[in-house]
Amino acid sequence: MSFATGFRHGVHPPEEKGLTSHLPIRRMPYPDELVLPLRQHAGKPAKLCVKVGDKVERGDKVGEADGFMSVPIHASAAGTVVDVDWWPHPDGSMAEAVRIKVDRYAPQVARPRMVPHWEGLTTEQVVKAVQDAGVVGLGGAAFPTHVKLAPPKDHPVHTLIINGAECEPYLTSDHRTMVEYPERVHFGIRVMMRAMGVQKCVIGVERNKPDAIAALERTAPTDLDVTILPLTVKYPQGAEKMLIHAVTGVEVPSGKLPVTVGVVVQNVGSVSAIAEVFETGLPLIERIVTVSGHGLRKPANLIVPVGTKLRDLLAYCDGVTPDAAEVIIGGPMMGQAVADLDAPVIKGTTGVVVIEKGETREAGVYPCIHCGRCLEACPVFLNPSLLGDLARVQRYEEMAEVHLADCMLCGSCAYVCPSNIPLSQLFQASKVALRRAQAAVA
Amino acid sequence: VSTDKLIVTASPHIRSLDSTPRIMWHVVASLVPVVLSAAFFFGVSALLQVVTAVAVALLTERATGKGGAIADGSATITGLLLGLSLPAGFPLWMTALGAAFAIVFGKQIWGGLGQNVFNPALVGRAFLQGAFPVAITTWPSVGGSFYTLRGDLFAIPFTHPLPNAVTSATPLGLLKFEGKGTALTDLVLGSTGGSLGETAALVILAGGAYLVWRGYLNWRIPASVIATVVALSAMLHFVDATKPDPMFMVFSGGLMLGAVYMATDMVTSPLTNLGKWAFGIGIGILVVVIRVWGGLPEGVMYAILFMNAFTPFINRATQPRVFGTPLRSAA
Question: What is the ipTM of this complex?
C-alpha cells in the first residue's frame, strides 16, 4: 500500500459536502449584538481592555494579548460595549465575554490602519504583526499562528505543509476558500515561507475537491517551490500527523511536535487570514463558516463576524427543520454539540452542522463483542477495544501504558463501533482523569 | 430556533449503520439455508433439533441474561450452531440440556455477551460429547421420507434412547476405523452421514461469502484454517498415500461449519488481522493432527476451543506498532 498520498486505517463517513460545496461564499449581515469571549484560542485568554459604555470601531481591540502564547481579540463591528460578563461559550462552558451592541448606522468601514509592507519586515516584525492581528489556526484548534511562525531555533524547518484536506463531513469552508481565493492562499504562503526562511511548501488537498486543486494549480507562483498534493479521501486525512505522514512519509514521534521532523503545518484558512493582514491591515474579525446539515433549511458558506450568536446565524439560514436534533460546532466527527444557541461563533468555529433525529447516535449501547473494527479504523494503530475495556474499570495507568496519549480523539473507533460504545468520550475523560492523577502525584 | 428539543452528545455525533444486533441477525439469516439443506437430508428431525436448540438457548438467555439481551441475536446464533453440530437423531432432551449449558456456562458465567473466552455453542457441544458419547456419535443415514424420525428424538430424559433408525458411519469414522473412503461428490454435496451442519459445505461457503461481502465476517480466519488443512494434509498425503487427501479433509466433518461460523465468532477470536491468521493456522494444524493421529475421527471442535484459549495471548502478541513509536515498544 502506498503511503505517498494517504495513510492506513481510517474511516469513510458519508461526506455530505454536496450540500454546500457548490455554494459561493456570501457575507452575512451584522447581527444586532456580538459576543466576544476573551478565550477563543489555545494558550492564555486575552486581557480585557474596554469597559461598559465604550464605543468601538470595527477592528478595535477589546482584549490584549496576555504574553507570547496569547493573541488579542478585536471588535468585529462598530458599536457600544454594553456588558462584560460570563456568557455561554461554544465549548459548553462559560467564559468572560464582551458584548457589543452593533451600531446600526455605522458604515462598518474599518478604521484606517497601516498595511505593513511585508517584504521589508524582519521575521520578528512579521510575527508581531500576525500576533497583533489576532490570527489563530482556523482549522478548529485555534493555536496562535504567530507561535508557529517562530519555531524553536534548535529545530530547523524544511517544509511548510498547508492543510487543505478538510476531511470532516459537511465542512466546505476551506474548500470554498481554495476555490474562490487561491491567490490569497498563495500570498499567505509566500509571507510564511519568507518569514520562516522555508524553501519548500506542499499543499495537501483531498481528491474530492478537484476544483480547489485546479484553482491552486492555476494560481501557483512560479518563483517558489509550492506543490499541490492530491490526497486520498479518508477520515482523518487532515489530522496533523496523518497529513505530515502523507506528505513526507515520516511519522512524527509519539508525544512530539511536528517541528521535530522539520515541518510546520498550517490550515488553509489560517494562511488566508495571514494574507488578509498584509493585504488590508484588518485583524481576524470574521471568518468563513460552513452552516450545513439536513436539519438546516438553507445551508450556506458564509463570512460571519466573530461573535455572531448561533441563534442569529441559524436564523439567517432560514432556521432549522422540525426534525433537527443536534447543533454541532465543527464537523460531526470531532465537533462539539451545543445546548445553548446564545453561544457565539468564535475564531475556531469551522462550521455549524445541524443534524436530524435519524442521524444522531441512538442511546443503546451493547457490550464490546471484540469484532476488531476499531483496530482497523484507528489511524495511530491503538487498540480502542482494549482501551475501552480499561476505561470502563478506570484503569487509567494501564491505559497510559498502551499509549492513550497518542489518541487524538478523532472518533474513528466510535464511528465504526457496532456496539455504539462512546469510545472517544471514554478516552477524553480518561485523559483528563490521568492528568489529574499525575498532577496530584507531582 | 428553540433549544427545547436539542440533544447534546459526545463526538462523534454520527456512526456507521452497522450495529451489533444487525451483524448478529445477518449471521442468523445466512444460517437459514444451512438449516434448510440439513432438513433436505435429514427431514423433520433436523428442524426439530435446530428449533429445540434455539428455543432453549433463548429461554435460558431470557432467564439468566439482562433485559433485552435476546434482541441482540447472539443466543439465537449459539442455538443454531449447537443444533447444527448435532446428529439428526439426537434425543431432544439432550439437545435442550446442551443449549442451556451453552448459554449458562459458555456465556453468562463469564459476564455475558462479549466476555466469554470459549465459543458458547462449542462449550455446549463439548459438554454433550462428554455426557452422551454414544448418542452424539450415532449418525443416521441420509435419505428417507421427510417425516421419518431419524432416531429416538422424544426419548424420555435419563433413559437409553432406542436404536430405531438406520444409521451409518461418518466419512471420517469410516476412514479412521474401517479404512474406507467416500466419494468426493458425496462429500461436497453433503449426502453422507454426519451432524446436520456437516453435510452442506457449499451452502455454508455461500453463507460465509455473503457475510464477508457485507463485512460481517473476517475472511482471514476461514481462509487460513482451510489453507492450513489443505497444505498440511497434502504434504502428509504425498508422503503417505494412505493418509486422507486434502479435498477429503476440507469437505468432510465439521470443518466448513467450524471454519466459517464457529472459529469466526468475534468474541472468541483475536482482534488483530495478524492474530486472525495465527488463530486460523493454529486451528488448521490441530484439526489435521487430531484427525490423522488422534483417537477421535473428528477434531474441529477441540481445535477451535483450544485456540480460543490462546486468543488473549495472540491479541497481546500481535498488537500493531503505535504510530510514531519505535518498533517493538508497543507490546
Answer: 0.86
